Amino acid sequence: MTDSPSSSSLLGRPCRHEALLTLPAQEAHVSAARHFAADLLETWSVPVSERESAVLIVDELAANAAQYGRERMTLLLVLDDGTLHIVVTDSGMEVDRHRADIAPDEHGRGTGIVRYLAQSTEVHQTRGGREVRACLRCSP
Predict the structure, then answer these.
(1) Phi-psi bin for 15: left (phi > 0), alpha (psi -120 to 50), beta?
(2) Radius of gyration of the chain (CA)
(3) pTM value?
(4) pLDDT, tens digit (0-9, with 9 covering 90-100), for 82-93
């Protein structure tokens, strides 16, 4: 885990914060990612309503990474100029969205929740796995 505020606040601009957490891609570690985000965002003085939305986004993205990732998942939080960037990566393969063995009402709600709460979302397949980004505006 790393947390590194930048010195831009000394120049009269909002301070940029960045933190990284890497965990095994296992369901048991989703709560650690959620608590890490909640504690860190409180330390960064993110308002409660945005903090709650961000923690829910982290929870959903970490749960997906734990389910589909193979070895590890990484949570990157960046607060920069009033925008919180939430990036979750995992080491899993591309997910087949149309699996016949999963009832349609049992999975897929998490990504809908993330899209509803975030101002923008992106999903990228990388050489090492998947990367999901969500951006959330935070009031000062």
Answers:
(1) beta
(2) 15
(3) 0.81
(4) 999 999 999 877
- HSE-CB of 80 using CA atoms within 13 angstroms: 10
Q: What are phi and psi of 45, to 5 degrees?
A: 60, 35
CA distance 40 to 67: 24
User: Using CA atoms, how far apart are residues 29 and 69, in angstroms rounded to an integer?
Assistant: 12
Predicted confidence (pLDDT) per residue in 92-118, tens digit: 776 555 444 444 444 556 778 888 889
